[in-house]
Amino acid sequence: MQAEDGKQSQRNSEIRRLRQQVARLERDRDKFKRMSEADPYYNGPDMFASADAVSERVLHCNEALCAALGYAEAEIVGRPISVIYHPDSVEGAKKAFASLVSDGTIRDMELVLRKSDGSTLAVNLNAVTYRNTRGKALYCRFIWRDITRQKETERELRASEERFHQLANSVREVFWLMSLEGDEFFYLSPGYDEIWGRSRTDLMAAPMSWADSIYPDDLPQVIANFERQKRGDLVEYEFRMVRPDGEIRWIHARAFPVNDDNGVPYRVAGFALDITERKQTEELTAQQQRQLILADKMASLGVMTAGVAHEINNPNGFILQNGQVLEKYWLAVMPILDRYYQENGDFMCAGEPYTKLKTEIKDMTLAMISGARRIQEIVDALSDFSQSGDEELKQSVDCNEVINAAMVIIRNLIKSASNNFSLDLESGLPMIQGNAQQIEQVFINLITNACHALPDPSKKISVSTRKRSNDVLIEVCDEGEGIPPENLERIMDAFFTTKRDAGGNGLGLSISYTIVKNHGGKLTFSSKLGRGTTATVKLPAAV
């Protein structure tokens, strides 16, 4: 009996001790709750909770956390804090909790919470551990901030940047963004690699190296606009740049300032367009306009030449006829004067001794007749050359005769260009079928080019004809400066010329090529720099 009473007394004592502990825990809980509720974060907009440092169970949470996740406070308090995390974040959260207990803080850690309906909530976590005087971790306080809007903004920004990069990468134009000082590129689109033929990486590593690619004549203008750009001015200009392979391209550039929130320029954005094709089209249009003007002038010259030829032929005919009559009269009178001279000796005539006058009058009449015939040849050649030449290519043409006719027109040019000119025309050359005026124009163009190519009159020009198989070959050779290999393939292109400053229009060889082609022939060139050029015309002999 006494033993039973002793056991009952022990149980009652244990119950009283447990009740005291429960009461103490309840007082601590209430105190902790009051302390938590007094915390400014408790009633703040951010999600807040505290958890036991050992058990990881939630001790308290604020209404903002319950509202954000859709739980009642009783569904969170007393449970492990990991239950509010999305499964993808649980492992990271547990590691973070262990680190928090040992290290004392968590700063700006991004995690994902799970709402009661299963949806997610992106948060930024900051946490701190509280310890007793002996340094033992008691509990941890957590503050989560909703960053869903921030994440959406970041996703939208990434999507926008991706769209921008897709756009920038898909167009040939060059887009760029750089510092106001021009010493740093923030963005440079892939179009730069294609248009400039250089690496974006190299330019971004050395931002000022862009000047190395500018065509020298355009560099001062580009630098001047670059300085305006650095002052925050809007600039727009065109220039030429040289690719590593030597190709020259035209660029249209536009740069404008990017202002900060106070309206002060702090960056520069811009774009560069390859307008080479447009420039070529403009040049072609201008050249075609010049060609039309030239054609009109040539038409006018043809009409004028015909009129001038008529006006010259009339008085020149009188000179030639009278010169021949005068020569006839002089030959008739000279025997009489000779007998008088033999009988009486020398005598004065028109203030000159007869012996001198006899020779001079003969030479003067011969020179008068020769000069008049020369004038007639030139006028006839100009008249033939000025004809339209639009007749069908059905004439029987003697290339030797055509070359001789061309020589009449350009003889003075040849004399001034070379002291060493040779003409080797093979006899018995077969005829060709075509248009004599057009073929003459080809020969004049080729010989004229040969004259212009000579650096001094000591250099040689030779023109030759010969028969080869069923073709007639005409060669015009000069000992001029030669044609660079890169130009040899282009010399027969319309409007291509290296002598535009000297009045060249780039049409002579193009027209010659077309004429020879229309005659069923070929026009080819061979050249060596410093040694000269040979132009070869091959025309089929008439059947």
Question: What does the model show?
Answer:
The structure is a single chain. The protein has 543 residues and is α+β, with helices and mostly antiparallel strands. Helix content is 49%, strand content 24%. The chain has helices spanning 2-38, 63-69, 73-76, 87-103, 148-170, 191-196, 200-205, 219-230, 276-344, 354-386, 399-417, 436-453, 485-488, 508-518; strands spanning 47-52, 58-61, 105-114, 120-131, 137-146, 174-179, 185-188, 235-242, 248-259, 265-274, 348-349, 352-353, 395-397, 420-425, 432-434, 460-468, 471-478, 522-528, 532-540. The strands form 5 sheets. It has a 5-stranded antiparallel sheet, sandwiched between helices. Strand 11 and strand 12 form a beta hairpin. Helix 10 packs across helix 11. The longest helix has 69 residues, at 276-344. Residues 500-505 have low confidence and may be disordered.
Gist?
By secondary structure, the chain is an alpha+beta fold.
Please describe the structure with a list of short key phrases separated by commas or semicolons.
543 residues, alpha+beta, 5-stranded antiparallel sheet, 24% strand, rod-shaped
